[in-house]
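Box 3.1 A note on notation
Throughout this textbook, protein chains are presented in two layers. The first layer is the amino acid sequence; the second is a token string describing backbone geometry. Keep the layers aligned when reading.
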Amino acid sequence: MTRSAAAIWFVFGLALSALPSLGESAGARSPQFQMEFSNPALSPSHWTLTLYPDGTGHFRSEKGNSGASALQSAQDSDEQIQAPDVDRDIKVSSRFADRVFQTAQQQRHFNSGCESHLKVAFQGLKKISYSGPEGVWNCEFNYSKDKEIQALGDSMLGVADTIMEGARLETLLKHDRLGLDSELEYLVEAAKNGRSLELRTISGILSRLAADPDVMERVRKRARLLLAGIGS
């Protein structure tokens, strides 16, 4: 065997020896659930929320070129500072993560379609996907024919609303402290009626507001109220 041929076989042997470790790595990959939302009429017009079974995850949003979000319309009386694009790691409660993955693992008909095709107003396109030991599946819908899938989409919207509210609070703290009062009032109401979920995802900014002597006492009080509702 020539020296060049021996070198080729040596490299080939190294590649083969690496294959088991690559397979093991892929097999050990954690299950993942993701929802991608888009609606050009809203701001942000597009966001993606990814979750893992331990409650860790990532959120990324893009404002797009639209006007104010429908989620903000209830509190918009004047021109409001918009939340910036968000790109950050998050952590939800184990209870919320368990519910998401139980639903995702049970709904194996994702690939068969979950759109109701009912004549309902466009609420935004939701693309949900799951990958794990059971397989990989996904579906897209505006309004789902499956109540559990629709509820799952609504719950992810609630978490996204909370995260974006946190980003708005951070912006207001820097540029418009007086605006914090109405924003916290809205968030308290949204948390009470279930529009905003998993406040632990914005516990950092809430803690800052609760302890900041330079903001209104009402703001500190509402921030403390929201923190008290997070639980363990």
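The radius of gyration is 22 Å. Residues 29-228 form one domain.
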